[in-house]
Amino acid sequence: MSFDIFVCRFENGESAPLDMRAAHEVLDPYAVARDPEVNFLLVSTAEGEEAGVFLNSPTGITFNRSRGAGIMDLLAVLLRRLNAVLIVPGGPTMIQHHEDRELLPTFLKDEWPVVVARTGAEIEQAIRAS
Description:
The chain is built from four helices and nine strands. By secondary structure, it is α+β, with helices and mostly antiparallel strands.
């Protein structure tokens, strides 16, 4: 995929901070390049799949040029660790549990599909279906 997707967290319909320390714990082992001036990581899986990651602290992480099952699996781990959702512009918002829907802002619940996607394969399937 060549578009941006966003990792965010919500509480009571409002943006909530992400645990950037935990995000680094998940992502740093996969980082093959960094630019600390813009909080950028280039992550790569063992299969050579890559994604650009911008840690837009404290309320968002952007994945760019994400491709491959390994990157989607890494994204699923990150979402679980941060208790976050994945927003695909023009596509679905992916949550971990059905009850997480109540945490989302009204515009995400009412204007875009919300789907449960817990694994990399489920994330990839939801994106392809949109």
